[in-house]
Request: fold
Amino acid sequence: MKVSRRTLLKIAGISLMGGGVRPALEALGAGESSKIVASPNRLVGKRWAMAIDTKKCPPGCHDCIDACHREHNVPDFGNPKDEVKWIWNEPFKDVFPAQEYRYIDEGRKEKPVLVLCNHCDNPPCVRVCPTQATFKRKEDGIVMMDYHRCIGCRFCMAGCPYGARSMNFRDPRPFIKKINPQFPTRTKGVVEKCNFCEERLARGLIPACVEACKEKALVFGDLENPAADIRKLLKAQLTLRRRPELGTQPQIYYIV
Amino acid sequence: MYNRGKILPGLVIFLALLTFPFWYEKGGTAPPALPLDTPEIQKLSVKKCVEPTPFMKASHMELLNQWRDAVVREGNHLYANHEGKKFSMSLSQTCLGCHSNKEKFCDACHTFSGVKPKCWGCHVVPKEGRT
Reply:
């Protein structure tokens, strides 16, 4: 039998389609027997945010930093060049460069202010990530990292105007004082940052830093919920955000 | 045939080298035995994995990838299996909770088949985690 070019292409096309249909059917079949659901006791919010009352922060206190770094297996390399940090202190003049003026009180200028990832509404780190390892969760606005996908290109570190991201230049495991088995460590060659305690929210717990603060200087809540404490606080107080002129819409609010 | 004395032994040596991997390992390393009644399994109250054993043996890597994407990217943490039983999707907690001996459970097959999964670079093996 002589097969014309037209018939051959038809047969080839149909066989290709057939090849594609089978895996699709199998995938549908697998979906029926098992399913994946959200945990019922998780905290639900539409736009998580945090307010930090710097006036309540006692000098020299770092309970929140310790709690976070313990919870998330953040290594301590012991030198500023390799430093990995999720939440830390910066002098006021560096946190709010626009608020620094000639006659600012010297004490205020150097006063340490607590800083962490701002979980921006318009995050530049997400935009520059070539693998979508950093992404913004649609349901609650948390800027998350998928360490499985991070290739260590550090575009996000260049993109973040707040320096909220740290690279693991070395294997972090030997530098973690006490490993928390509930949370993974990172590996050499990935970038890391605050995840707004996404893993705790899923278990129905508030972020570790907020829980650790005895002075209640940190307030965490859902901005879309008018009854939330954070909304009342933002209504009652004038707050600052870090470098809002950049258009990143940071979601950490400071009472100074 | 010219140069028969060189070509034929040369061919024999070439074929021997080409098939080297096949005959070298013959009868060498035996695949790891996978007993289902070890003392560790006897100690467990529930002796069933999240899905049937044949599926887990063949497709655990696909299931783990599905779990990873669901937890990290979609924020869903519970897996309901074909019987409707729910499990928290966690390698270190749920999987290693029962399969407590990583060396015998994971590494035995992975070493034999030359697979090097990168799970343990970050995920903590409970016993190995220094406390």
User: Anything to note?
Assistant: The CA atoms of residues 125 and 156 of chain A lie 4 Å apart. Strands of chain A lie at 35-37, 48-53, 87-91, 112-116, 134-136, 143-145, 166-167, 191-192, 218-222, 252-255.
